[in-house]
Input
Amino acid sequence: MLPISLRPDGRRAVVVGGGNVAARKVESLLAAGFPVFIVAERIGDRLGSLLLEQRAEYVQRRYESSDVNDAALIVAATDDALVNADIVADARAARVLVCDATQPERGDFTMAATVRIGDLTVSADSGGGSPAFSRRVVRDLAAMLGSQYGDAARTLTQMRAHLRESFPPEERAAILRSLAFRPIAELATMQPITVVCASRRSPLAMIQSRAIAARLAERGIATTILGVTTGGDRHQERPIDRLGSTGVFVTELETALRERRADYAVHSCKDLPSTLADDVTIAAFSVREDPRDVFCSDRYPSFESLPPGALVGTSSPRRRAQLAALRSDLEYADVRGNVETRLRKLRDGDYAALVLALAGLNRLHARAAHVVPFAVDTIVPAVGQGALAVETRADDEAFAELLHSAVNDDCSELCVRCERAALAALHAGCSAPIGIHARLADGLMVVDGAYACDDASIRRERIERRVATLEEAGALGAELAARLQVRRADARVCGAER
Output
């Protein structure tokens, strides 16, 4: 037996019979939303009261074979076994689902005892063997569950409608599962609201913004995404470090926050400048994707296998400096555009290889023929690489707390706060040729730093220390910056070492 739910969609249900059994079937069908048509020679008191309320249409006569026409389903509930058998045969011939209330095994389906709790329908089915017991079960369940379960079902119905509009099918199920297993009292009292997320328009940025929106959806908060074009997106023909300011992928998103066109913004953390304006704040850091930089090529299996003079594309001064320190015999050139655009240029033969962030490839499920990550102590990643930062207005403390509870990953927060503290102490921006990466395991934080000097050398430092608080993480980052001894006048510092 397969329990199913059948939507009426305006289709007629026919009940043949006028006694108490027929009345119970009519009540169930009406509760489910079916238009009901009753055929009966005699109408009992229980069914008569329903008809007085004008809740169903009826004719008072014997059953006729044409009664099955245009029916979505039919219920045989007379006290005549031969008539019921005729109804089953006629329904089968007309390909209409039929229930024989007197001999359940003869029909296509049985009708479960049902109770509605708000938007929630609870059913129990004994296969027709004990209808009275089925009714007892649903009454007991209704008493045990209470109205909260119906309110919780209403919340889930509302969020399902939002998810259908905002997320691709492959992302919806996981969100609904997570939401469905939140405490019933919380689900029942949720008042779904809609907030606006400012996001860059690129495919990767939209995936990242939906990842944050999904965490909020699990708390009953619907998100509308506002696509924003940033300065970095408008001027893709120019190297990022020559656009004349820090935060080239950030400024317009923050403007949307300030103008209250958006409630929060999602950034690739590595795009953020080392310090923020006083009127905005980072409310949360996501779980970190793989932070490593990665070698990509369709022709060469590894960075080491590239022939001298091969052209390597990268838009990052940090990557270029560290790569050149490893192999000065290669040519390095800027490559702009979103990840798919860069990979297309690689496939077209414009470059022998690219070096990209592995996190972006993973989120896009994109690949080249050869993809080989660099160890984090070989090519030290950018500050915050792999993590997403969720930014909101500093004066919206309640919403910032909600974002933090829904999205924040404590390990990512400690590591990225350490990295950003180092970058801020170095007075450097997000496009400076500096790599800083912290990782945490069992309370021990290991942080690597690499800075490109004017003489093309790379200054490196590493510190290992036990860290448990944001203050300790920030202090460790500041200590790393002090050891690197780099300021904006880095030529003087590096020159002293030559």
